[in-house]
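User: Please predict the structure of the protein below. I'd like the answer in structure-token form so I can feed it into my own downstream comparison script.

Assistant: Understood. Taking the following sequence of 263 residues as input:
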Amino acid sequence: MKQRLFLLLASMCLLAACNSQKRVWYLQDAQTFDPEAIEQQGQIRIQPLDRLTIVVNSKDPELAVPFNAATSYTALTPLASSNISSGNALQIRTVDEHGMLEMPVIGLIEVAGKTRNELAQLIASKIIAGGYINDPTVNVQFADMKISVLGEVLRPGSYAITHDKVTIFDALALAGDLTVYGQRKDVMVYREVDGKRHIEYLDLTSKDIFSSPAFYIQQNDAIYVKPNKYKAQAGEINQNRSFYLSLIGTAISVATLIVTITK
């Protein structure tokens, strides 16, 4: 009888441990050897107020110099200031609030919503169409991109991203992954698109996350990992404990004062 009871208790403990462990697993419904086509998305799209570095080159470097000159929308780096004459400038150009970018010689270009490659091709085509350079090569880079990861992660904070196709898992890895108290089925991604606020909720335990528009992170996204019920309960217990300890301390102080006065 005792042996059966021991085996029953051991089985219950094992099941409880397995369930607890499963709560922190990602992609629980993903199947082994179940390949899926990767959607062609995830490239970072240019947004208003983004800061870009745009460098135009040619086999004849002198022809590219005017396109790399500073404009009223350009902030020069120290390196750029010393290299403008050689055509190797690294100016930082800011997209205005309407999604327009001013380029030397070419003028204003609508850039919001374009990828870096699309913008590079557009600038090159305008240079060729204008008869300025026959063989332009254009390099477009983001001067700075960041995301914020908040809540139940190991290292909350702002993080720089330097390349396209940054997934939600990449972003969480930057922050040291979720803590054991992080809610994995309801991770919030806050994003601004065309001047409107959008919020997406991601279930990290389901492979359906791959089809979410928030699976690939965009610049300036904010990711928030909510605490699960265990963290909430622990916080409430600690808060109540602090309140009662404070109340007891106050009562003892009052009682001591009364005893002292009545002596």
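That's the full token string. The two ends are 65 Å apart (CA to CA).
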